[in-house]
Write a structure and sequence with these properties.
This protein is an alpha/beta fold. The chain has a domain of 197 residues: Acetylglutamate kinase-like (Carbamate kinase), CATH 3.40.1160. Helices cover 37% and strands 24% of the residues. It has 14 helices and 20 strands. Strands 3-6-2-1-9-11-12-10 form an eight-stranded mixed sheet, with helices on both faces. Strand 4 and strand 5 form a beta hairpin. Helix 3 runs antiparallel to helix 4, helix 7 packs parallel to helix 9 and helix 11 packs antiparallel against helix 12. It is globular, with a radius of gyration of 24 Å. Bound molecules: adenosine-5'-diphosphate (ADP), aspartic acid and magnesium ion (MG).
């Protein structure tokens, strides 16, 4: 039999088995008939030719007999441009209207990808959040997922279609459109994979997977073959924007296996999974990350008595302002200084809240520094390697970089430094911990 004839025979048989609702196809006929959720980020669908390229990639997986749900982000930097437009109209746009606006980006790419697939001769259908049953609360611009009603998606899948779904969007009980926070298409994909009990969630992006550092800052960064949910969560939360933090958290809670891969190459990518699948091949340090999105506030000469910290941070919490690192200095003459970091986008609101609290407490005043960066080292091996913090501080000191704040968790150490020194710091840490070399296993010397 020629290869062509064999493929035709295989596809006919697969079709027959789908018709008979047989879920698995023997491996000699092309593997299993599982379900995969694939997500393509903004750069991957930036223009018509890239959308056609994505369509060909999707089609080739569909040809192997796999059922497919495909989640897309908005084209290129559409979301940024839409936010800019909103701010040209209003200095504080209504969050509901902002969501109406931002959600349009993903609808464009879902429709275009579905058209591209249809043009190649594949049965595809695009669905938005309302049609796909993606239900959220009504906290606009950072809505929480409540449930996914998979009835429509399953119906389309049963009819043999490739289902293309808008990322980032949700819908409230009252049918209002919401969005899931920046980078939220990752969360859409992971949540759909969990709800549909998919075998795998593939996140296609513009780099080959998760690296030991942002490859744009450290060209020698090494691709990680595997990383645990816990480590990926810390990497995402400390600035590695390759995966949205909430999406990793969701994947960990629902045990969704994730493969991060490039849309533009055939490299194997990075598997994000549970500790049990990581095995003993684990490095001490997984990566170096950085975040330049925070600002530092210092309250000078706060009276040092019980209840003061509760008052300050209580007021910030009430204003929905997240605080990251906190340092309280040693008390002198009955007063102390308290420094902490917040998202720079919350800075003005935080200042306004604190002015009132300062007056009430009789503190001397507030200082603001928005030129800061946070560099972090993440690695599960830190639990059993006490020398890591000292080595990190020495690597920064050797570059004459001053550390302004430090915070640690069991698998992470973060330092706040000057923003202008961030690239130098990331590169120095990557070098000091030999992260470009093949995995250093636990038990070996750093
Ligand atoms: P997408 O639009 O596909 O969601 P993002 O821009 O959100 O893509 O995320 C991919 C980017 O994340 C990469 O281009 C890379 O510069 C950045 N990045 C930061 N840290 C890392 C890391 N440790 N590994 C891989 N990429 C990283
Ligand atoms: N388009 C949205 C954003 O830019 C969602 C995403 O790309 O994941 O944040
Ligand atoms: Mg992203």
């Amino acid at each position: 039999m020629t290869q062509q004839a064999f493929n035709f025979f295989k596809q006919s048989l697969q079709g027959l088995l789908i018709g008979l609702k047989v879920d698995k196809i023997p491996s000699y006929l092309g593997g299993t008939l599982g379900l995969i959720v694939q997500k393509f980020g903004g750069t991957s669908v930036a223009n018509a030719s890239r959308i056609k390229q994505v369509a060909r990639k999707v089609a080739s997986v569909f040809d192997s007999g796999t059922k497919l749900v495909v989640v897309v982000s908005a084209l290129g930097d559409t979301t940024d441009r839409l936010i800019e437009m909103a701010h040209q109209i209003s200095s504080s746009p209504s969050p509901r209207e902002l969501d109406m606006l931002l959600a349009t980006g993903e609808q464009v790419s879902a429709a275009l990808l579905s058209m591209a697939l249809q043009t190649l001769g594949y049965p595809a259908i695009s669905l938005n959040a309302l049609q796909a049953g993606i239900k959220t609360d009504n906290v606009h611009t950072k809505a929480k997922l409540l449930e996914i009603d998979t009835e429509r998606i399953n119906r389309e899948l049963k009819e043999g279609k490739i289902v293309v779904i808008t990322g980032f969007q949700g819908v409230t009980d009252a049918d209002d459109i919401t969005t899931l926070g920046r980078g939220g298409s990752d969360l859409t994909a992971i949540a759909l994979a969990a709800a549909l009990k998919a075998d795998l969630c593939e996140i296609y992006t513009d780099v080959e997977g998760v690296f030991t550092a942002d490859p744009r800052i450290v060209p020698q960064a090494r691709l990680l073959k595997k990383i645990s949910y816990e480590e990926m969560l810390e990497m995402a939360a400390t600035g590695a924007r390759v995966m949205q933090t909430r999406a990793v958290e969701y994947a960990r809670n629902f045990k969704v296996r994730i493969l991060v891969k490039s849309s533009f190459s055939e490299s194997g990518g990075t598997l994000i999974t549970g500790e049990e699948e990581i095995g003993v091949e684990r490095p001490i340090i997984s990566g170096v990350t950085f975040d330049v999105s925070e600002a530092k506030l210092t309250i000078r000469e706060v009276p040092d008595r019980p209840g003061v910290a509760a008052k300050i941070f209580g007021a910030l919490a009430q204003a929905q302002i997240n605080v990251d690192m906190i340092i309280q200095n040693i008390s002198q003459a009955g007063t102390t200084d308290i420094s902490f970091t917040v998202e720079r986008t919350d800075l003005r609101r935080a200042e306004a809240v604190l002015k009132e609290v300062c007056l009430e407490l009789g503190a001397k005043g507030i200082e603001v520094d928005s030129e800061i960066a946070k560099v972090s080292l993440v690695g599960a091996g830190m639990r059993t390697h006490p020398g890591v913090a000292a080595q990190m501080f020495k690597a920064l000191a050797d570059q004459n970089i001053n550390i302004e704040m430090i915070s640690t968790s069991t698998i992470k150490i973060s330092c706040v430094i000057k923003a202008s020194e961030v690239n130098k710091a990331v590169q120095a840490l990557h070098r000091a911990f030999n992260l470009a070399l093949e995995d250093i296993k636990e038990g070996e010397e750093v």
